[in-house]
Specification:
2 copies of one chain form a homodimer. Chain A is α/β, with parallel strands linked by helices. Chain A has 2 domains: 1-149 and 313-370, Rossmann fold (3-Layer(aba) Sandwich), CATH 3.40.50; 152-307, Isopropylmalate Dehydrogenase (3-Layer(aba) Sandwich), CATH 3.40.718. Chain A is built from 14 helices and 11 strands. The longest helix of chain A has 28 residues, at 253-280. Chains A, B: It catalyses: a fatty acyl-[ACP] + phosphate = an acyl phosphate + holo-[ACP]. Chains A, B: GO terms for molecular function: phosphate:acyl-[acyl carrier protein] acyltransferase activity. Chains A, B: Belongs to the PlsX family. Chains A, B: Catalyzes the reversible formation of acyl-phosphate (acyl-PO(4)) from acyl-[acyl-carrier-protein] (acyl-ACP). This enzyme utilizes acyl-ACP as fatty acyl donor, but not acyl-CoA.
Chain lengths: 370, 370
């Protein structure tokens, strides 16, 4: 579970780190450079390349993957303007063990893409590949932000009638100890500040009830550690994640994965049934089909989670999208990566953990060291 | 976490146990007797009493709670035919610690209702009260089925286009060790046989992926222990709980609580947005409102989970419904309790664990002892 510390020995300091912490190279006219991992998705390279090409209208794209796989998918076999091919001969499959694959496949598209970010040749990476291996690749090549034990994957979920909620971790670190949940709270708060523009995000700890007796030993200890954190509102229920009560919902990667997938599946099932009902009760077929499309779009626009999660706690921007991402999802994930880079979330996180470390040196309690 | 063993010293053998295991007293003409806990719900006693009175059309109801609370809610202050008042002066509040409340409030409506079942004066109990205290009350008064370490709360979720899925545990036992998950699988399989009439239910272990590398140490060990169980299909994702791939989804009570509440909230939010969209795109207001009602009903009928969960592993029938249960929910929960009693699920569970115990004595591996 604790994947990242298992390969700490491989960790290197990224070349672009000082620039990232100091503030971004965001001069007018300079286009964002995003490394897109074209290999390892569930649906093959085609939708990923199509999405990357669409994104290349506005950003520079580094397409990372086996040359023989990617080149045939380019128009005329040649990268169009704004697109560069970066060869990475190894592919990590979805079912592979992340640690074993990271050791064995040093030229995987994941490690190469993360290496481009670490070397300062890309501003961000986007991957629809094996989540565990992607987390490791980012942690290994970019390194962790000092003070972060484990990165967390954060997803922005829309809430009808209220601002969105950041849910983390949704799968980077399946197990959790109280200290890690506290770190996730800091990561999520900085993400909410950077991406959602919230000055003082409200943070909840996902539990099985609001009451102090709920949550089991791990949550109860994390709850005590979080008590002094600005914006911390207490333990929340899963209802509250979509309820507008908090801006950040903190949990371990196992529970976050279950919550997110339950959400996605329920949304699909409900939309499907609602459309069946609209069709059944609509007297005119053509009108019904038209209404159906508009209802679907309205509900999906109102409720669908972002197609990619941001990996927080590593020294660079990494967006991990679904293994079944469509071209539109990949294009949108490049957009999320751009927002992450421009909002300076990595530098914010580094400063938050550095401040907490200084507090620790001065002997004060801080939200991070509990 | 392990609430039940904390109070094992209080455990008594219920009087009706032999009859329950042997087969039920289900002579034609005899009405079912259900003890309904009228106290401790979030919305007060009113909807609970209303639901119980509605249920009393077809079953005999024992209304359990403080006399002064319940009597004013009866028509004319007198129990109608089919309803009997059972005084229980203590009330366990939602936020109370279950163990402390169980020790301190020996005449709580929960312990009295469970005692009615244990004494054979009721066939089942229904409560919208504090879940942890309800689990303890049932375990303490009825006792656990021999071989069961912890009871599990099982909910039937509808799946569009397929048979329903039994999800357990949804909150009786928040923590889980591999052996308990195996017990939950046996409990869930017997519930699916008894209530859904499935000869060979397909059982999945809820995890964060299908791959063998997923799930963390607890799931991976449980997966190995379950490998020889008939009907076990492997680790599943949250998508599969509503996907028609399994009939029983097994997890710990913490994750089950998060999954169920995410499901309920997403369903509400999606239906709400779909209705807004139908209304927005419908040219005629009155028609839209009418359609709205029909769409809502169709979606809710198609997707809403049962309003009550069955507590499995105790020596009697106990249905725990939501703290915010409406009168209709309480009435439906009495119906679930009746189905549980008539289907003989408690006897089935006892026989399954007894068989497993005999196998153990003969030195064979069994699904339960792993």
């Amino acid at each position: 579970m604790h994947l990242v510390s298992a390969v700490t020995c491989l960790c290197e300091v990224p070349d672009g780190w000082d620039a990232i912490v100091a503030g971004h190279d965001d001069r007018p006219g300079r286009r964002l450079r995003v490394a897109v991992d074209a290999a390892g998705a569930d649906l093959g390279a085609e939708p990923v390349v199509a999405g990357a090409l669409a994104a290349a209208e506005t950003v520079d794209v580094l397409l990372v993957g086996p040359r023989a796989l990617v080149r045939p998918l380019l128009p005329g076999g040649v990268p169009p303007p704004g697109v560069r091919l970066v060869d990475a001969p190894d592919v990590v499959a979805m079912a592979e063990d992340p640690v074993a694959a990271t050791y064995a496949k040093r030229r995987s598209s994941l490690l190469v893409a993360a290496g481009e970010v670490a070397a300062g040749r890309a501003d961000a990476m986007v991957t629809p590949g094996n989540t565990g291996a992607a987390v490791l690749a980012a942690a290994v090549r970019m390194g962790r932000v000092p003070g972060v034990s484990n990165p967390a994957l954060a997803m922005v979920l829309p809430v009808p009638g209220a601002g969105p909620t950041v849910l983390l971790d949704i799968g980077a670190t399946a197990a959790a100890v109280p200290d890690w949940l506290v770190e996730f709270a800091v990561l999520g708060a900085e993400y909410a500040r950077a991406r959602l523009g919230l000055a003082r995000p409200r943070i909840g700890l996902l539990s099985n009830g609001h009451e102090a007796v709920k949550g089991g030993p791990v949550r109860r200890d994390a709850h005590l550690l979080l008590a002094t954190m600005p914006g911390y509102t207490g333990q929340i229920e899963a209802y509250d994640v979509l309820g507008g009560r908090v801006d950040v919902a903190v949990t371990d990667g196992f529970t976050g994965d279950v919550a997110l997938k339950t959400y996605e599946r329920t949304l699909d099932a409900t939309v499907g049934l609602a459309l069946d009902a609209v069709r059944a009760f609509s007297p005119i077929g053509v009108l019904a089909r038209d209404r159906q499309r508009r209802v679907t779009r309205a509900v999906r626009d109102g409720l669908a989670a972002e197609p990619g999660g941001a990996l927080l706690g590593v020294r660079g921007v990494c967006v991990i999208c679904h293994g079944t991402a469509t071209a539109a999802d990949v294009e949108a994930s490049v957009g999320i990566a751009g927002e992450c880079f421009r909002s300076g979330v990595v530098g914010r996180i580094a400063r938050a953990f550095a401040a907490s470390s200084r507090q620790r040196l001065r002997g004060r309690r801080s939200p991070v060291d509990g």
